[in-house]
Amino acid sequence: MDSIDTMKVTEAEAERFKNLSRSELLMLPDILKMKYLFAYNVKHIKLEKVAIDIMSLLKPFSGTSILFLIGATHVGKTTLAKLMIKTLIEKILTENDNDPSAVPYIFIPAPANGIKSISWTSIYENILKAGHEILINKKHAKVVENGTITIKPARFASLPALRDSLEEMIEKRKVMVLAIDEAYHLLRFGNLPAVMDTLKSLVDNKGAKLFLIGSYNLLELASNYGQVSSRAEIIHFERYHTDNEKDVAEFFTIVKKIQLNWPCEEVPTFSAISKELMEASLGCVGLLKKIMLRALEMQLANKGKWNPMFLSKVAKSQKLLQSIRTEITDGEENIKGAAYGETIFSESILEDAIEKMNGATSNG
Amino acid sequence: MDDFPSIFKLPEVFFEASERPKCPSPTLLYGLQPYGVGTGACESLKSYISRLADAHRVSVFALVTDVLGKKLLSDKRKWYPDITVLSNFLPIGWYTSKIITVLTEATSVDGLVSCTMIPFQDILGGNHLFTMEDRHCPLCLDEARERDGLYCHLVWNIACVKACPIHGVHLEISNCGAPSDARLKMSFRKMLSGVCPFCGSIGYQCRLEKPVFASDVDVWKARQIADVISCLPESDKIFSSQNLFVGLKSLVESFSDGKSAIAARRAGINKSVLWGWLKRKYAPTLGLLLDLCLAAEVSLLSVMKGKPVACTSPYLQAKPSKRRSQKPPTEERETALKNALVAVPPQSLSAVAHQLKLDESTLRGKFPELSACVVNRYRQFRLDQKNEHFETVKEFGLNLIKELKAKGVPLTARNIRAETGHSFGPWTILYRVINTALAEQQNRPDKLSS
């Protein structure tokens, strides 16, 4: 059986899981049961809130050209981004005037290894591949200067050639959103404003939007960039907090929804310990799912019989959890006041403003 | 949120695949639209392919060989990769139609056939229809350069067009005007229509010649062809060999009361050619058809549509019908040949034929002995001239050797070139002379003479 971290679910499998009845689910082999839970996602309030914000900012004429989706590790950022891009692609496909040469949405991960120059090369190559570009290793850069056009030849595609080709591809393939997952890997380049300038110039004047997804480290990249104030927005994907009653209630619903489709005959009553699970997952839905996956793995290994003792092994150790908690709380502290919607119109000012506006309307 | 989907439409639970979502595979190549389709300034296929290669930032060769060629092979279409790139971009022919099919599949752009003369494949004769050399209108390129939409027009490829239908200036041959030291190395050259490949100048700015206005006839012809090209998108409905045949018949009927020989003579074309068209023995060639339309003052497009319409160009002055000059009588020819036998310096047979406005072969056929005498006399004269010249050069060469030896300069090709100021290579007489003289002096066999 694949480990939880390396598990892969294909599009066909995800489609199959969608239509499974309870009895069919229980008949599945153990590996597919694991995959079922791995692919299983529930809609929840925080996901919806962030999705609405992103959808409105990704609109072609929203005035925002760079979008940062920042949140805690395993809060569900990638799941959300995948969901949104998939929805947008499906929407495009239903349109009649769909341009067959267009690739409106590109979603790639930032490469996590390599030295500086090679990393830019691999980012450009990844984007070009995602844009279905031809002959990537035969590209040349076009130089237009002093009324002449020449080329910069290269044995293999050089960085300027790839860059030049990429800008052309974004324009000709009518790319609307270029999403880069795990964008905190870009921080390795050091000169953060230069990184942002490089990325921004890719989409500038082409009507495309840059959508960078990452954990709180990404805030450094966003806040170091001068044009954030005018052209960019930071969307904060918050976790659920144990000190907030509404959050506790919503988290209980999430646990209940997972429990409802538990792929074993014997279903543990996780909802009874939803508060403890919330504590163990730090209010992150992704982390909760990881705990549940481990629990299922143990239950399946135990021939489908649940043992409450499994709980002691499914959660992260206290020290590890503390380290993640510190990282998250530091990030939450840093992002305060920078996220989308955190304007000068705080709740009290907004109430006051509404009252004034209503008063002015009634007075004529 | 009108045009963007709402997240609320999602079910309470959803399943997510591990892979990131991808847009469905788009067309292999960008869906670039050709410029000027439906107008007389329609883009040529060669220009379109070079723009497509440029958009993908690959060379034209790579695009044709690695993408279009492979696609042709994969579709089991016949393809010879060693065929030069240029020959595949002619506006007509088997390869062109195959490339159009592959390009249409690869780009999903319809109407690429309008960038070629393929619709006329079975209607017009293909001989001398196109020029092999690239040509351009400097004023069109200037305008295109300013609006950043450089491309080459299909009409520039057609051999009988000598002027720009828009600006009325002569089309220029697209040669580089820059000095040889300003030319780029091969690996830096960009193959893009409207750009000089040798120096990279956009819009052939390297050529410093001012545009020259073309004659009214040339402008009229160019406009007639441009009118036909503008109708290419509707070619299926408009053009057919039957329509052209009907058009030609009506033209001859109205122009010369149905007498094709008279119509041909007025148009300055061979009567058997027009007879062949009217008997449908062979397809009309565009250049001669245009001459016929010009003489009859009807528009080419209307003839091709099958209903000739009068078309007197405001720029076109009445052109008197061409009559063949009278042939000189036999006596005059014989006298001219006899005079050539005593003329000093001797005359060649072709010079005599030129004087009589005849072909050399006509004289040979009628007066074989006299012609042979003229030829032999002239041949002997040229041989004597050659020997005399050789002796002069030999003397000059020997003096040169002496001079160089006196100066202490080594007898190398470079030094001789510097001394004489002329080229000095194995193809020059001086080279042979010096080589022979040196062989004699050094008592070695002269390889060149032997």
Which key terms come to mind for this protein?
heterodimer; A: 364 residues; alpha/beta; two-stranded antiparallel ribbon; 16 helices; 51% helix; 11% strand; globular; B: 450 residues; mainly alpha; 17 helices; 3 strands; flat
Outline the structure in words:
The complex is a heterodimer of chains A (364) and B (450). Chain A has 364 residues and is of the alpha/beta class. Chain A is built from 16 helices and 8 strands. Chain A has helices at 11-18, 22-27, 30-39, 45-57, 77-94, 116-130, 159-172, 192-203, 218-223, 228-231, 245-260, 274-280, 285-301, 311-314, 318-335, 347-362; strands at 40-42, 66-71, 105-109, 141-145, 148-152, 177-181, 209-214, 232-237. In chain A, a hairpin with a 2-residue loop joins strand 4 (141-145) and strand 5 (148-152). Chain A is globular. In chain A, 37% of the residues are buried. Chain B is mostly helical and 450 residues long. Chain B is 46% helix and 2% strand. Chain B contains 17 helices and 3 strands. In chain B, helix 14 (360-366) crosses helix 15 (368-407) and helix 15 crosses helix 17 (429-441).
User: Uncertain regions of chain B: pLDDT < 50 for 5+ in a row?
Assistant: 82-86
Would you tell me the structural class of the helices and strands of chain A?
alpha/beta
Order of helices and strands of chain B: EHHHEHEHHHHHHHHHHHHH
- Mean pLDDT score of chain A: 82
**Spatial order of the strands forming the largest sheet of chain B:** 2-3
For the largest beta-sheet of chain A, the strand count, sense and barrel status come to:
5 strands, parallel
Rg of chain A, alpha carbons: 24 Å
Number of strands of chain B: 3
Global Rg of chain B: 31 Å
Low-confidence stretches of chain A: none
User: What is the beta-strand fraction of chain B?
Assistant: under 5%
Secondary-structure class of chain B: mainly alpha
Cα separation of the termini of chain B: 93 Å
What order do the helices and strands of chain A follow? HHHEHEHEHEEHEHEHHEHHHHHH
Q: Count of helices of chain B?
A: 17
Counted beta strands of chain A:
8
Strand order of the largest sheet of chain A: 3-6-7-2-8
Distance between the termini of chain A: 71 Å
User: Residue share in helices of chain A?
Assistant: 40-55%
How many H/I helical runs of chain A?
16
Shape of chain B: flat
